[in-house]
Design goal:
The protein is mainly alpha-helical. It is about 60% helix and about 5% strand.
Length: about 160
């Protein structure tokens, strides 16, 4: 199970790196796709609607799992910092590359919200989101399996 989790995390990292290699990808424009009211925060419902608008269909439970992982202050909202951290690769080279990119300040298209990105970037961004969300689902399934096993002790496993 641990190797499965490592593999899932590697998939997320590769998807993050792939998105960052697209010159027009930036976290500011990605955040604006979901922050439709320009409040500086995104709720789980905002995220679900934004994902649907760009063609990434997920359940509300999937979005809640994503929030449980990335909502660091547990206020039920992702602010820009939390959202940007979620999309930022662990690799310092790619993280720095992404951190230096400003937003385009291009208006969000009401009909195609991911239009702020070129087609290849839009596809990489959708792939990243799908990978991140499916990984959260797989991680939750593993956690539930371990909780049902009366013989599994987390402390003992790490010792």
């Amino acid at each position: 199970m641990i190797s499965e989790q490592v593999s899932l995390n590697q998939q997320v990292e590769m998807a993050k790196n792939e998105a960052v290699t697209k010159a027009d990808f930036n976290t500011f424009d990605a955040f604006r796709i979901f922050d439709i009211d320009n409040l500086g925060t995104v709720t789980a419902l905002d995220m679900k609607h934004g994902l649907q608008d760009i063609g990434v269909h997920v359940t509300h439970e999937d979005v809640i799992l994503f929030f449980e992982r990335h909502d660091k202050d547990r206020d039920g909202r992702l602010d820009y910092r939390e959202f940007a951290e979620a999309l930022t690769p662990e690799d310092p080279y790619y993280a720095t590359m992404l951190g230096r990119r400003p937003g385009s300040h291009q208006r969000i298209n009401v009909y195609r919200k991911d239009d702020v990105f070129g087609y290849p970037t839009s596809q990489a961004f959708k792939s990243l989101l799908r990978t991140m969300i499916s990984t959260e689902g797989a991680s939750e399934a593993t956690r539930q399996n371990l909780q049902r096993n009366p013989f599994f002790d987390t402390n003992e496993a790490f010792r």
